[in-house]
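Is pyridoxal-5'-phosphate placement plausible here? Inputs below.
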Amino acid sequence: MAQATLPLKHLFDLPEGVIYLDGNSLGPLPKGAVARAVDVMENEWGAELIKAWNTADWMSLPQIVGDQIAPLIGAPSGSIATGDTLSIKVFQALAAGLKMRPERRIILSDHGNFPSDLYMAQGLIALKDQGYHLRTPAPERVIEQITEEVAVVMLTHADYRSGRLHDMAAITKRAHAVGAVMIWDLAHSAGAMPLDVSGCACEFAVGCTYKYLNGGPGAPAFIYARPDLVATVEPALSGWMGHIAPFAMDPTYQPAMTTERLRVGTPPILQLSVLQQALRLWDGVSLTEIRAASLALSELFIAEVEKRCPGLTLASPRDPAQRASHVSFAFDHSYPAMRALIDRGVIGDFRAPDLMRFGFTPLYLDAADIRRAVDVLQEVITDELWRDAKYQTVNKVT
Ligand SMILES: *Cc1c(COP(=O)(O)O)cnc(C)c1O
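Reply from A.M.:
I modeled the complex. Tokens:
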């Protein structure tokens, strides 16, 4: 396949006049996704009814989509199960990881990890009720806390607030040196940069598909289990779709011998179909080029903001090698300022307590977009447009 030249704006249905700097939170609508959803609803669900599980091969869709994700994270075909939400997949990976080190009681994460990942660990610890502890040092101190007490190291590769990257290879190596299991959450890095899950040899990797993979709101999550381990992984959530023979209706659970054992219940066919369509746009796209372009856009943004908006303080690593594909700036009035920005067609998001966060997705952004976005930001800050009363009430979703 010939390599595509970035950006590929024509592959997305973006509203006219909007500069979308939030593809790290919810990717935009890929062209063809609506047609695909309508096709599935009318020609599969509508026309075929329950027969579509076979005639449209709905039952294989989680695997088919998993195999589309695999090359994007450096995993082999057949090593990824899709479905549920990322929080569920975190729970499954963690439960399975703890079972692999039954004599150890420490889960090591970091205090910058996404709250849901930490909450799932807390819930699992309470459920097990066997003296497990979650340690959350500062991200920079994680590596020195990986000791022989640690059962599982569970980290998110790219910090959701600052974009700071953990070194997947070095941390995994350290975890394995002390006999700990490694779980990587790739929520903010899958689709943003080349990843090498196989190369780092982590036991598990999880991620979501509605961020850089553009699968749409509520799109299913993914879980990777290292192929040499999968036949012994205990799935914890032992639903019928992970059974070796779901339609044998055996009253006793017996897991599939493949990654399928990490499936739980009925797959979300509409979302999976849309995701399947969304993932097609990666054909011929080089993640190395995506990474280079994303850093070029981020560097331009940082330089322009620092020059033109002196009230904002960079809250992301300055070294691009340490930074994922989003950039955050701290500002005392971040929430109303982001509302004012969104009102003027530049969409980023606010993250507590005081961050304005901007994602750079070179699939549909170029340098001209970045300059125009900073023009608007400068106006919002310099003219204090955020002071308008209508930006002071806090929405349910920020
Ligand atoms: C986005 C994100 C989630 C969200 O989990 P859901 O269950 O899909 O809502 C979890 N963890 C991380 C690290 C994330 O970035």
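Short version: The pocket of pyridoxal-5'-phosphate is lined by residues 85-87, 114, 116-117, 156, 160, 185, 187-188, 208, 221 (CB under 6 Å).
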